[in-house]
């Protein structure tokens, strides 16, 4: 009995030790991959991690030098054990992607030719550097190129807020805030665009009061939503809706609903310029004017919206966005309007930025007692959504 018990205990100990070893091997951290090596034409060497390549440049993150971007023409040799996807210039990555046409595997460079090895025993493919449009890691390619993200995923944008308060003979307080969200599918620039959703909301509110004098109020609200569907990489159709309230112009609520065609006239890695044109139904409802002036008659308009938007990424995380639109009305030529805006975002810390913005709104047919032009300037703390 004692011998059997001893044998059972010994066997249990061996199995337990083996199980722990197997469990440790299965749950332990994977071995750290070998670093990538970049050799320049002058003999200098960088060791670190290849991030991506676009056109004639390569972005490499060195353990000592940080992130650097250099031209492929300055690179003599490159070796990486990681797997990448090399996207040739003559291949269009649209909705139906044939991944077999995209060389994928470990990557090396010799004499300005990229050598892609899909497997240890597989045949290597050679792609001249000049024929490669983009190089991305294989996991990113498989995820972004072959899968559609859910509607709640892939949103980027910024949330900004600013406020001021004065307590003296006069009491004044003001608040400004904005939310801008964009969801592009697919999210990567190296893929052909399919659709894009844009949501914007901004509000500026202020009040100045003093004993014995009327209270002065400012209340400006703008909201819009747009959905783009791309026909080609540069041309898309869109539907849009917008709502505006401007107490300073006697505009109680302006609603516009319509759709049209957009064109991306210029696009690079750092900037994009778009032109749009649409046909819209516009309804204008006005507030009562000063001194008990009754509100103007509500207008139902059929018009067009012609506009342009420009986005530019500068060095050090500085971002400029600008937009301009003009809205003529076909059934009432006097009821035209225009809107212009510009925002400059300066990085502060991680995802926090300092945003300066200006919005100029023009309404040609405001009620009696209100000005046609409304201008506002804001400075706010903004948080960018990755």
State the separation between the terminal residues, measured CA to CA. Answer: 68 Å
Reading the helices and strands in chain order gives HEEEEEEEEEHEEEEEEEEEEEE
Strand order of the largest sheet: 10-11-12-13-14-15-16-17-18-19-20-21
How many beta-strand runs? Answer: 21
Major sheet attributes: 12 strands, antiparallel, barrel
Count, helices: 2
The percentage of residues in β strands lies in over 45%
Low-confidence parts, pLDDT < 50 over ≥5 residues?
1-30
Number of domains: 2
- The helix/strand class is mainly beta
Arithmetic mean of pLDDT: 85
Calculate Rg over CA atoms.
30 Å
CATH top level of the largest domain is Mainly Beta
The CATH architecture designation of the largest domain is Beta Barrel
The CATH topology label of the largest domain is: Outer membrane phospholipase (ompla), Chain C
Helix content: under 10%
What general form does the structure show?
A: elongated
């Amino acid at each position: 009995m004692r011998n059997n018990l001893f044998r059972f205990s010994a066997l249990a100990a061996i199995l337990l030790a083996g199980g722990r070893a197997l469990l440790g091997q299965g749950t332990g951290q994977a071995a750290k991959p070998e670093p990538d090596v970049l050799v320049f034409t002058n003999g200098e060497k960088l060791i670190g991690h290849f991030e991506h390549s676009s056109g004639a440049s390569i972005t490499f993150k060195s353990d000592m030098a940080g992130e650097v971007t250099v031209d492929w023409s300055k690179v003599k040799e490159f070796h990486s054990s990681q797997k990448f996807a090399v996207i040739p210039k003559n291949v269009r990555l649209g909705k139906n992607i044939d991944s077999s046409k995209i060389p994928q595997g470990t990557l090396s460079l010799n004499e300005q030719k990229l050598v892609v090895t899909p497997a240890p025993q597989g045949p290597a493919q050679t792609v001249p550097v000049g024929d490669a449009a983009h190089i991305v890691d294989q996991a990113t390619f498989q995820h972004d190129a072959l899968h559609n993200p859910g509607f709640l995923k892939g949103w980027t944008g910024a949330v900004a807020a600013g406020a001021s308060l004065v307590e003296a003979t006069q009491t004044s307080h003001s608040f400004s805030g904005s939310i801008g969200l964009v969801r592009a599918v697919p999210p990567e620039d190296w893929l052909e665009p399919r659709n894009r959703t844009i949501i914007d909301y901004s509000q500026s509110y202020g009040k100045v009061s003093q004993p014995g004098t009327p209270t002065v109020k400012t209340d400006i609200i703008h909201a819009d939503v747009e959905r783009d569907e791309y026909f080609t990489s540069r041309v898309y159709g869109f539907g849009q809706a917008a709502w505006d309230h401007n107490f300073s112009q006697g505009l109680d609520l302006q609603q516009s609903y319509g759709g049209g065609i957009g064109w991306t006239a210029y696009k690079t890695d750092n900037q994009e310029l778009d032109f749009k044109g649409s046909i819209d139904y516009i309804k204008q409802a006005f507030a009562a004017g000063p001194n008990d002036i009754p509100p103007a008659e509500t207008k139902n308009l059929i018009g067009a919206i012609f506009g342009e938007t420009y986005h530019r990424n500068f060095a050090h995380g500085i971002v400029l966005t600008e937009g301009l639109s003009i809205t003529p009305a076909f059934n009432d030529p006097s009821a035209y309007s225009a809107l212009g805006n510009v925002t400059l975002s300066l990085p502060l810390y991680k995802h926090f930025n300092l945003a300066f913005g200006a919005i100029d709104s023009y309404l040609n047919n405001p009620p009696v007692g209100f000005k046609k032009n409304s201008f506002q300037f804001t400075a706010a703390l903004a948080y960018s959504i990755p």
